[in-house]
Fold this protein.
Amino acid sequence: MGGTTDRPSLARFSLFSATWHLCVWLGWVLVAYSVVRVAPSVARMPLAFWIIAALALVGELRPVRTSGFFDPQGTVTSTGYVFAILYVWGLWPAVVLHAAATTLSELQKHKPPWKLFFNVGQYALSIGSAALVLHAVGLGGGLAEAGRGLRGSDLPWVVATWVIWFLVNNALVSGLAQESGRTFWTEFADDIWFYVVTTAAVLALSPLIVLAASASGWYIPLLLIPMFAVHKAAKLSLVEQHQALHDSLTGLPNRKYLHRILDHAINSPGQEPFALAILDLDRFKEVNDTLGHAVGDRLLELVAKRIRGALRPGDTVARLGGDEFALHLAGVDGQQHAAQVAERIRSALTEPFHLEDVVLELEASIGVSYFPDHGSDVHVLMQRADVAMYLAKGTQTDIEVYDLARDHNSTDRLGLLAALRRAIEAGELELHYQPKVALADRSVVGVEALVRWNHPVRGFIPPDEFIPLAETSGLMHQLTEFVVSTALDQAAAWRRDGMPVAVAVNVSARDLHGPELVRAVRRSLVRTGVPADLLKLELTERTLMAQHSRVSETIDGLEKLGIALSLDDFGTGYSSMFMLKRLPVSELKVDRSFVSRLSEGGEDVSIVRTIIDLAHALGLKAVGEGVETEEMWEALAELGCDSAQGWLIARPMPAEPATAWLRERLLAFPAEASGTGRIRLLAADTA
Ligand code: C2E
Ligand code: CA
Ligand code: CA
């Protein structure tokens, strides 16, 4: 048991701590008195004593480390030897030996003097208490003085010495912790089973040492052999523990380890403030996709190295997965400071990376949250750093500190946002496909891809709930990239199957800012070999019209790729004829709200007729969405609408049933699938 690492604060001087200080001083009195008692007889000590004493020193200097976390100092085996000496030669040499061993190891570990002072006093008093048991059974001077060896009937008092030693020792250590703010009992109970087991393992050695010594002192070193095995086993378990807590690629601590560090920091007696920063590389995925995973891995290793190099001692950087890292910045004094550290890391990453024959430039977005200002729980702090990081990505400010006032998200939404990001990576999102068919002959003119999130706990979450969330964060690009790439994979599979169906993907306003969408589309087209006319992008007319100047670059890029646009929810916004003519729009989707009221006649009929006529006047197709009944179908057909989409024809379906749906119609009516993706259907099929 290694004591605590925090310096006791003398300011909290209470009756309790006065008692505690007295105890430690008492331990020192005992040490001094023991030295006086032992000194005259040192020369007469037998060989067995010296062998045991030597092993005690070795045991103190070579602790057995089983857990790097609970017990950073390891469990020292010297206590077992010290107890053997206590049993055979009594209290005085045991106290002197233990004091010597403790002093030696504390000096070797460069521990501060107050710690040495405490540990020596603490151990002396603990052994002194255990010795009271020997007194009680009339063996105060030890077995040697009584002129006998260890017997079977001695076992109960031997065990009693262990129990007393453990209780007194743990109480003294816990008393120290109380000084720095934690309660005695919390500290006493903390990891108690771990200490019980390791203490028992060490102390159980003591009677065996006595027995060996009673035969011949030369048997005692044999105990080193099983001890050596224990050392080896402990080392192996440390290696395993290391693997479980570290990332194999970069060697950095992993998420689990970081959580432990944060938990520890939050629950530490001093409750020192710290900052948690989440760092996400911008455009790393591009490197991976274009240069391959080997280069990506190498880059991550270099990034890890640079981040580590930019940290202060005592800070930790962990890899959370992918291109995401987290930093625990210990003891930051004020928010300014953490931002400085974050800035240093960010600029360390902006230096170009030289990899084999390429030079790469990286940027990173960093979000910071503070303990205790922003939360006193690991998950909340992580979430808030996450939110700040998204803000940084979204606003291109590189570094953001979490700001409650600016965070319009409720905790629930924050949780969802963090979960969504993981869901995209973990593949919890999937696409469903809903067919669009021609009103004239019911041939399939395409399918619309609609994203679905199967949340492992909350179940199905509709897109209307998480798309807006993704839009306010930096996640939208990632989500759309997933949808585009998955939809084109599906289109390619159908094409190979002889069903060249056009797939429409919904894009949001956010997707039109920046070059990501065009890049993602181009990449997926090249990768899958699907011709551009089999991909359509649906965007609402509001999106397109409101921000035309900002999005024109993206639209131009898409037009160059040969991608046609479909104007979604048409009729709910304001479009200018001029724009409709200028933009690469190929169809207008009549909003569901108008279609659903078609059968009621009146104004809605004239609105739908106007939209359809407008579409035709501009050379575009009109699609009615949300067609649920025969009446709606008939009304649209009568108004000259080109195609329809809705539950009457088919609900959105997962890839497999959608494929079966498409194939069934082709088998029933072997059609010559045309190059434009039109597939003729059995005429009577859906009527
Ligand atoms: P939207 O683009 O207007 O998609 C059509 C919505 O109408 C879909 O809802 C679809 O399931 C539903 N629907 C289809 N036929 C009928 C019908 O006959 N009756 C009724 N009442 N509803 C019908 P969903 O899948 O819940 O999607 C909602 C919205 O979420 C979509 O509206 C779209 O704006 C957005 N969305 C879906 N997937 C994506 C995506 O991958 N990216 C983006 N940016 N937005 C998406
Ligand atoms: Ca749509
Ligand atoms: Ca729509």
The first helix runs from residue 15 to 38. DSSP finds 27 helices and 17 strands in the chain. Residues 434, 450-451, 462-464, 467, 483, 506-508, 538, 568-569, 626-628, 646-647, 652 surround C2E (ligand 1) (CB under 6 Å). Residues 1-12, 68-73, 671-687 have pLDDT under 50 and may be disordered.
